[in-house]
Amino acid sequence: MSLSNQRALRQVFLTITALLLSILTFGQGKRVQWLTFEQLEDSLEREPRKVFIDFYTDWCTYCRKMDQVVFTKSDVINSLNTAYYAVRFDAESAVNVSFGGAEFENDQIGKSRNPVHQIAQLLALRDSRFFPPTMIILDSTFTVKARYFEYMDSKKLVEALDL
Fold this sequence. Notes:
By secondary structure, the protein is of the alpha/beta class.
């Protein structure tokens, strides 16, 4: 092989490598655009849209698995970012939340081993108990359309989001 052919082949190889790396890097930067409840309220006032809420806890293994496996999938990211306002909330958080003209707090801190925040109590209880992960789908008027009290793989979650 001549020297000029080797240079041309090397240039093609470097170009292909650079394109592949840029594609991989671009894909990794895409994430779910999570909002806080305060940001959600502002967003709903500007433009009504469906809402997806992911209630999790730090100790929940399936919640971490959803973070690492499900919420990183491009089809899930695209569904959430294009059709929904997505909120993630630690159901045991000590943070006070202002939403809908009301104040919500975690009044169970110090009283319960797993203190559930008032906003999670309002939206995410099943048989008067909180079971993570819990996902809530609401329409643009903030009416609950579905509640899921389980780990959902990306296929099942996308199907639920498309309903």
